[in-house]
Write a structure and sequence with these properties.
The chain is α+β, with helices and mostly antiparallel strands. The protein has helices at about 5-15, 70-80, 80-95, 120-135, 140-150, 155-160, 195-200, 220-225, 235-240, 240-250, 275-285, and strands at about 15-35, 40-60, 65-70, 100-105, 165, 170-175, 180-185, 255-260, 265-270, 290-295.
Length: about 300
């Protein structure tokens, strides 16, 4: 029989740390210019959904990555897990010897390459989870630089709360008064090439995002969001006509506002209540069982 002392050692070595990788929703995305190096300048109003991927981290004899979830096989097939591994390796490089081998398990619930930051959210969750497991912290500047190295969306996914991001996504300010929204995420499970969407963008210098002064009521926020845009939606709709179909389906099921997120193909519908969102998601799933529909609530800025 194990002594109690050994048992606590055993449980400590087997204890795992869990991090949620929340879906990132672009409530608005304005393309305001292009830098000489080709990167586009963006103004984005971003929030995060309760729903997302989930990562578990535990000490292991050797580094290992395992996958599950609805979209786990897709990743296994195309090597799309490299952002998680890249995050692990970059963080290990930054902190040195305390970074013992780890087993990472990724439950992939979000569609891959779908405009809701799944890979970036996974990368950010890997940084957060491994810092906890390895018992280390980095300065805000070092962490921000490391996150940006992994991708323009990773710094905002590290925050995982309502924010406005400008530049290429690295200039971030919190939006504490953004309310929570009941939402349905909808995706026809057709990939959209982000470079191709940007290539087809007719105008690169569009008006900036302006939300001041902050609207006090949810209805005012909805009006402010409705007055904004996603400049990538028209070119994405040309590439994937299903985006228009899925938006119309969300509206037909009672969405107060619909828009595409990121470079697509995920669209969101904002609903009056969570019950309405859940009812719409169930009905939409019955109509198109092969597509992705997920009712979720977004986090509020004050959370």
């Amino acid at each position: 029989m194990m002594s109690s002392e050994n048992r606590s050692d055993f449980s400590a070595s087997c204890s795992s740390i869990t991090e949620e990788a929340r879906a990132k929703i672009n409530l608005a995305l304005h393309v305001t210019g292009q830098r000489p190096d080709g990167y586009h300048l963006l103004d984005m109003l971003v929030t995060f959904a309760d729903h997302g991927d989930r990562l578990d981290f535990m000490r292991s004899p050797t580094d290992e990555l395992t996958l599950s979830g609805r979209f786990g096989e897709v990743l296994a097939g195309d090597g799309g897990t490299n952002l998680v591994l890249k995050s692990r390796d970059l963080l290990r490089q930054a902190i040195g010897t305390v970074a013992f081998p780890v087993r990472i398990h990724l439950e992939k619930n979000l569609p891959v390459a779908s405009g809701i930051g799944g890979g970036s959210a996974d990368a950010a969750a890997t940084l957060r989870g491994l810092m906890r497991l390895w018992g280390t912290t980095l300065s805000a500047e070092t962490l921000a630089a490391l996150a940006l190295k992994l991708g323009a969306d990773v710094p905002m996914c590290l925050e995982s709360r309502p924010l406005i991001a400008r530049g290429i996504g690295e200039k971030i300010e919190a939006v504490p008064d953004l309310p929570a929204f009941a939402m349905v995420l909808a995706n026809p499970l057709k990939g959209v090439s982000t470079p191709e969407v940007f290539r087809r963008l007719a105008t690169k210098n569009n008006p900036a995002l302006s939300l001041a002064p902050s609207p006090p009521q949810t209805a005012d926020w909805l009006a402010a969001i409705a007055a904004a845009r996603n400049d990538l939606e028209p070119p994405a709709r040309e590439l994937v006509p299903e985006i228009a179909v899925i938006s119309a389906m969300l509206e037909a099921h009672g969405a107060l506002l619909t828009r595409m997120s990121g470079s697509g193909a995920t669209c969101f519908g904002i609903f009056a209540t969570m019950t309405a969102a859940e009812g719409a998601a169930a009905a939409l799933h019955d109509e198109r069982p092969g597509w992705y529909f997920q009712a979720t609530e977004t986090v509020s800025g004050g959370a």
